[in-house]
Structures are given as C-alpha cells and as structure tokens.
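Recall the central idea of this unit: under ordinary conditions, the amino acid sequence of a chain determines the structure it adopts. In this exercise we apply that idea directly, starting from the sequence alone.
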Amino acid sequence: MDQLDEASQLLVNAQKAELSGDVQLAFDLYQQYYSNRPFRFTYQPELLSNTTKIRPPKLSIIVPCFNSEKYVEQCIDSILQQTFVDFELLLIDDCSSDNSLQIILKKALEDERIILIRNKKPSGSAGSPRNQALKIARGKLIGFVDSDDWIGPSYFKSLIDTLDEQNADLVISKGFYNHVGDTYNKRIYPDNWQIKCSNPDLSCTHMSSMIWDKVYKKSLIHNNKIWLGSYPAAVDVPFILKIYHLCQKPVVANTNDYHYRRETENSVTVKYRKGSSCDFEIKAYHEIFEWAVKNKIPNSYLNFMRLKRLASFIYTCKLVRIDFFSSYFDRCSSILVESRQDFSENILSASGQRSLDDCYQLFLTRNKQKFIYTQRSADKVYLIKDKKGQLDVANTILPAYRLNDNKSRNLVYFPDWSFSNPYQKLFYENMQRINHYSDLNIIGLGLSEINSDNLLQILNTRDIVHLHWVHPFILNDKSMNHFCDLLRLIKVQTKSLIVWTVHNMVSHECNDNEEELRRRKYVAKFCDRLIVHSNFAQLNVEKNYGVNRSKIYVIPHGKYDVDSQKTLDLINEYYSARKNMRLTLLGELRAYKNVEFAVDFLSRLNSSLPLENAIELRIAGKSISQDQFDYLHNIQSTHSFISLHLKRLSDDELFHEFCGTDFIFAPYSNSLTSGICINAVSHGRPFIAPKFKALLELHQESNSVLYDNEEELWNELLRCNGLFHRGLLNCAYDPQNIIDKSMHLEWSSIFSSLDRDPFKLSIS
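Accordingly, the structure predicted from this sequence is:
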C-alpha cells in the first residue's frame, strides 16, 4: 500500500471511530494521520519552523471555505491546473458542517502545494480565515479565490507577468465572468476607471471592491498592516480602500478569466445582504472613515471613499430583504445627509458615476417610497399608509420562501407587536418552512396601519387575514362596530380567509369582563376560524364566544428560540454561585401577575425560616405605574430577600434572568396561555404557578410546581428550598431534562403534526 492509500485509510478509520463514539481511538488515529500525511506544510508553528530551508513559492493563493461542497472541488482543480505553477495554496476550512473538509483533505493528499488550516470553531466571517492565511503566507505575492468560484488556466500567469513587467505592487484584472445559475455575462471594467488619478478632487475612480480580481505584493499588505474586516460581510471594504490609497504603482492585466458565481446558497449576498439588517456595512464604513481621519487621508481620496460608500449603500438597499429595508435606508440617509457638505457636486461627474445621482437625491430627501418604486418595484405592494396618509413600508415583512406557479399569496397579520413579542416572529418563520405555506408573503401591520385602503391593496382572493390581540379595536361599541365593518368589507371584496388566534379570553387590563366577552363574541362572528393554544382554551372559547367547536383549532404555543448549550452552561454557573434559592417574577408587572401577593407571601414564609435559608424573590420587568415602582423600592429597602430590576428588559437581560433563577414564579389571577411559563421551559427552568387547567397541559413533574391554594404553595416552597440547600434542586428539576421533554413544543414539530390546518383554504 503506497503512502496515499495508507493516509486515506487512517483518515477513514479515524472518522469511523469518531462516529462510533470511540473518542480516544479517533484521537489516536487522527494524530497518526496528521503526522504521516504527505504535506510539506501545515498550519502548526512547530512544523512551519522546519520548512524555513525550503525555497518559498512566489505566490500564495488563499481560499477560505465554509460549506462549499458543491463547488470547492472545481475551485481547487482550477487553481492546481494553472499554467503558473510556483505557488502554495492555503485552504482554510472554517469548521464546515458538510463534506467540504473531506474534499479538501483528498485534494491535499494529492498535491503537496496545498496547506490546510482547519478551524475548530466557525469564525462567522469571510475575513477572519483570510487574515489567518495572510499571517503565514510565504509567497512574495498574494492572490485570493472564493471557494464557490473558479479561474481559467492562465489567470494568475497573466496577472503576475503584467505585475513583473511593470514592477508594480498591485495588479488588477480588466474584468470577470459573472455567473447566475446557468447563465453568465462578461463584465469589463471601463478604461477610465483608475486606481491613481491626478484629479485634485478625486484621486481614485476604480469602483471594484473585490479582493479576488487582483494580485498584491505581500509587502504592501504586511508593511501597512492591512487586514480584512471580521464582520459577516463587507470584509473587503477596509482592505481595498486602504490598498488603493497605499499602493504605489497599480497596473491592469489583460485578463478577465475569473469566474464569479453570484448568489450561491452560502454567498455573502444571499446569507447576509439578503438575510440580515446589514449592520456590518454601516460598521465597515464607519471604521474605515475613522482610520482616514486618524491617518489624515487627503480630501481627494476621502471623496473617493464617500463615492464608494454611496455606491455600496445603493447596492445594499436594492438587495436587503424588504423587512430590513426601511431601517437600513433610514440609517444610510442619516449618514449621507450628515456628510452632504463634504460631498462636492462634481465628484459624481469626475468619477463617471452620474447614474448614482438619482438614488443619492432619494437618500438626501429620505424618499424611501420612490426608491422602492424605482429600484425595487416588485416590493411596492408593501408600501402602506399610516393614519396621517404617509407612505411607509409595513412593520414586518417575511417574503415567500418559494413561489407556487409563480404566484405568491399574502398573509396579513395584526396588530404586529413582533418587536416586543417574539411569538409572532417564531410562528410565521416556522410556518413558512412548511412546504404548503412557503408561497406566503407574511406582512405585519402596526395599529396605525390597519385601515381599508391598506388591506384592500394587499389582499386578494386566496389570501389570509390573521388577527391576534383584538382588544385595541373593541374599546367600546363604536370601535367594535368599525372594526367588524372592516372585517366584513375584507370578506366581501377580497374573499380572504379570516383567522383569529385567541391568546386570552379577555385582555389583561380588562375592567369589565362581561362587556369585553360580549364584544369578542361579536367579533368571532366575522371570523372563519379561531386558533387556541390548549384543549382547555378550546372549551372556554366554545362556551364563552358561542363558536362551534369545528371552527376552533388547537395549535400549542411553541417554545422560544434558545441556545441550549449556552443556557445550560449559564444555569450551572449561576446555580453554583447562589447561596439562596431564587424565585423570579418576570415581565411587564401588570395587575394579574399579583406582584403584591408575591411580596407578602414570601415575607410571611421567610419570617419562619432562618435568615441564611431565606428564599430570594427577584422581580424583573417594567413597572406599570409610579405607585407600584415606589412600593417595590420601599419594600426592597426593608426586606433583604427582595431584589429588583425594574425596566423593560432586553433579550440578553431576559436570557440572564431566566438562567439566573431556580424557578419562574407566576402567581397569576388567571391564565389561558402563559408565554412566561413556556419561555421558562424553553430555557430549561421550572415554573411555579396556580393549578390552572391550561397550565396542566404544559405541566410535568420535572418542569413545574402547580398549587391549589396558599397552603400547598407554602409546603412546596419549603420542600424545594430544602432540596436547594442539600444541593439537589438541579437534580430534581434538571434543566437538560426539561429541555429534552419539551421537544414536542418545537415549532417544527407543532406545524408538522397538526391534525387540522386552520389556514387551509378549503376544508374537505
């Protein structure tokens, strides 16, 4: 068996051992494999020191890879087949979860020019792996290729020959091939695009900000400490803008043989520009302008940076997912308006970029409506009017995953409180992942946007209206009638399906249960179907709203999105540090949560306990009145067992509150569904609450304590407190066990196991 076969077999055996769970054997085999494989170089300092006598290659080619199994072999092969052969190929596997690493390893065994850098954790950035490679690259020249692209056989020879002939420190190709699916076109840079210009107002006009269409002298990079950004995208912004300014002699090579695959599954455009709020772009330009000020970069080059920033903002505003568009456009507008005095009028003309001017004016006038009409016309359906008649983009938009027969449907939900209620976001994101919902555009409207003009513009036959909390629309009989007239109009003119999720029998702050129930019963007449979260709620809605049970669908309230391992680690950290058992009363401190009862009850219970065994009461959330706020602070000053965090909590603060407690305390007056209790289970935390029938459906012995009366609550708290002081509480209410036993509340499980579908257009 030759060396290649032996190394391959070692790798196969190591992987088999790892899969079978024999960690020690896998470790030993991997050690043998890495020590025996026929690589001259590897990313290990002690081995690198042994290679110093070997002549370094002229060129280092850097290819970061993350989950590129569909393309990476073609990419590597195109590099290994270059007519220019004096190179090393640095492949950085950024902890791929697909077969990318296996493909890379196979290629590395076949060609000794390959150096493998294998990261144990993904960096989350395309810049960080490239920086890793730059720090160990041995070539005098540096080139980059993306793992889903490929190059023609003479690509690097053309670049390097041109650089050598003209003694340049930077060479750029004249263009590239742009591939989208099975089609492509040739992109050739205009001849008047120059990296160095003599114009006193604009010292650079070249608009390419890619790193892969160039070869660089390594000394240019290292001497000036030029690195790529570590953001999810826009990592090339600081690199290229520094390179263009600091290079002494850039030249253009007569080649365009780089093949750029646009919008693959893992491309930056798809993953980040089209799938996030694009904060990284704002951050990248903020940092590069800070660098420019610190280094006293001349205004002629600052003008180019301003031009490049404008082009980037326009590009991203065209691509960013529509639900992020409004906030991103506003931020870009603010930046450009603030710097408009520095952006002289002749810059666009001098650069040959007059085509940017129209969009620039839209930013200056903050006219996002016209931007959508002129640059994103397919999204104009999402432009709606508020109460003052002003056009803006809907609160929340989740575009369809896939189109059905080239036609998407719309689901309009309101009121949209996703910013403070993650239930809505989780519901719709997971709903869209089900195949027969993947053609739905999800559109959330705020209270000020709910009117007939907007709804009739958005809704068509086969569309869906989904109501959530109706109490803002039925404050009195007049508002109730107006709201029901709106539902009737929608039904008549659009024939949309109207679905109502009943989260509570009456609103939390209801002053007259009988009156609100009467109004809700009237609203129910205009709805085709109702959704509830438990079988108990189904019975209540049937009885109190006068709705036939066949129209009521049970969809359990799903769990919240939580990083389980991070949660378990933090729970254990807090638990080991705490000296007293903690109960936490969490969320907006409304009347039904019985904060005063909790304080009084724990005061009485703790008075019967030794001071060192007192149970801590943590109250965290926004107080609903100044009187309540003052009361709690006065109580805290006289009761050492009470701690307060009275504010609207951020997501991170909520996470720490859940992980930092032993029980979520929910001594509520009544409950049809408790988001707090479900959130507790999502975080592996048990809850204590009255024995409401709705909570009985969530209850398991390992995840909660339910009580009928104060005596039961008293005894249960004493029992749990005893377990805590014997170090057994986390065994009795094991967080991992709580998470594992609530898998049926994962949203994917909920939607895939529905007996009846409330959003189905026809019921057989």
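The CA atoms of residues 285 and 691 lie 55 Å apart.
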